Amino acid sequence: MDKVDAIVIGAGAVGLAIASEIARRDRDVFILEKESAIGQGASSRNSEVIHAGIYYVTGTLKAKVCVEANPMIYQICAENKIPHKRLGKIIVGNGEDEIKQLEALMKQGKANGVNDLELIDSEKIKKLEPKVKGDMAVLSQSTGIMDAHGLMDHYLRKARRQSGSDPLVLDTEVKGIKKTEDGYVVDTVSGGEPFSLEARVVVNAAGLFCDKVAEMVGIDIDAAKYRLHWCKGDYYSLSGKPPATMLVYPPPLKDTLGLGIHTVPDLTGRLKFGPNAYYVDKLDYKVDSPVELFWSDIVTYLPRVEKDDLRPDMAGIRAKLQGPGEKARDFIIEHEEKRGYPGLIDLIGIESPGLTSSPAIAAMVAGMVDELLD
């Protein structure tokens, strides 16, 4: 059996970012991915937004890594010619209750270290986006969009360059993980054939299945509060000329499931709306939400959008730690030494803003890996 230094399970944005930071010519690092291409889960089925870090509770990992990573993402994209746009975002409120939400968001964002926020009135909203209806809005100038696949391709190229070889192993599903004296034996089915590797360090970045990977090692995922709940979000595309060029958001949902149905401009000039949020128990990427549900939310801030101009587009599924009716949970990034699994690093519940946060998460995990291997 081959012995290697580190295995990263999962070739989404976060797994690839981690691999790009830990790969070196004096290390054997492998990335195991069960799909036939990188980024086939949440990393390629999202809004591709570069988040500023406004929404998340101050002091949480979500807030810390998002605020830290926002300028890093812009720098990575600029230096590596990854398509991106700093569009800016307005979070629009109508009526007294929503204005109070916006004022709370301003305080939250500033407490998190987002320093470019501005509370603007309806007149300023009209100057920025004439077709948007809003009594007040939070303006975030550091929010933008990017090519998620371009970012993942960059991480993979960097991992290959750093290691001097190709660490990516596709079509390889992890079936079992056993603790050994020196690390972990990872049993897989690769290309239809059994295949095993022994690694000193295992990084679990398996996205929608990271709780199952943790369970394979022997962690009680209910006692550890690692069990995931899949939350689906649908998108509708708009035919015709987009009524807004910036990202336009309503106040976030009070049930903590998501940020509300917002405009999703892409780098080609097309416009989508989404995502909504509802729990599911199977992976199904069909758009199930009725158009009326979307349209009724959209017209609260873009009243000229016609229902007949909306078409089902795509769907994504998020790995949430909170279940129905529960409060929002933070990212879990944990070296499991205290549970008796030294050398195992679990990343659980890395949903939004995971894509934006990927370089900061990678730097954090690389520090853990360096301590274990150096």
Any key phrases for this structure?
374 residues; alpha+beta; FAD/NAD(P)-binding domain; D-Amino Acid Oxidase, Chain A, domain 2; 2 domains; eight-stranded mixed β-sheet; five-stranded antiparallel β-sheet; 8 helices; 20 strands; 28% helix; elongated
Q: How does the SSE layout of this entry go?
A:
Blueprint (H helix, E strand, L loop, with lengths): L1 E8 L3 H10 L6 E4 L16 E2 L10 H19 L4 E2 L3 E5 L2 H17 L4 E5 H7 L7 E5 L3 E3 L1 H16 L4 E2 L2 E8 L4 E7 L2 E12 L5 H8 L11 E10 L8 E3 L12 E4 L5 E4 L3 E2 L11 H8 L11 E11 L11 E4 L8 E5 L5 H20 L1
Parallel strand pairs: 1-2, 1-12, 2-9, 5-14, 12-20
Antiparallel strand pairs: 3-8, 4-8, 5-7, 6-7, 10-11, 11-12, 13-16, 13-17, 13-18, 15-16, 19-20
- CATH names the topology of the largest domain as FAD/NAD(P)-binding domain
What is the CATH superfamily label of the largest domain?
FAD/NAD(P)-binding domain
Derived from helix and strand composition plus strand pairing, the structural class reads alpha+beta
What oligomeric state best describes the polypeptide chains here? Answer: single chain
Describe the largest sheet.
Answer: 8 strands, mixed
Spatial gap, N to C terminus: 23 Å
| CATH class group of the largest domain | Alpha Beta
Helicity, in percent? Answer: 25-40%
Rounded mean pLDDT is: 96
Shape: elongated
Rounded radius of gyration (Å): 21 Å
Unreliably modeled segments? none
Helix and strand sequence: EHEEHEEHEHEEHEEEEHEEEEEHEEEH
The CATH architecture of the largest domain can be named as 3-Layer(bba) Sandwich
Strand tally is 20
